[in-house]
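Hi, does anyone understand the following?
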Amino acid sequence: MLRLLQKQTETTSELTATIADKAVLAGLIHADKESTLHMTVDKAATWKLAKKKDLTGAQTSTATTVTLSNGGILDAGTNLTDDVKAEYTVTTATKDGTTVSDFKNEGGIITTVNKSYEDVLTLNGNYTG
């Protein structure tokens, strides 16, 4: 039997995701510590935040940066997190997970439209726009 041993090291990754041209993405995103995730919602595309059922506690998306541009939509109202409201957090932070980074709104739309007046959307990061 041949056995290969590898030295245990931290794994890092980098991803730039662009959702564009009226595409729809539903769900939460998460950048692990030491990884980089740049998310862009562009050209009338929609990112619908949606509850992750096995996640107990806050429904949170994390990325290194988020950019809404050219009518790109962040929809935090369509998918409720309980019977009466939608409550989501979007956090932008650098690889260390503690230093806030950029959430840019360059002609995008943020919405919590539904039949509830109890919705909460928290943006943790350097918001500009």
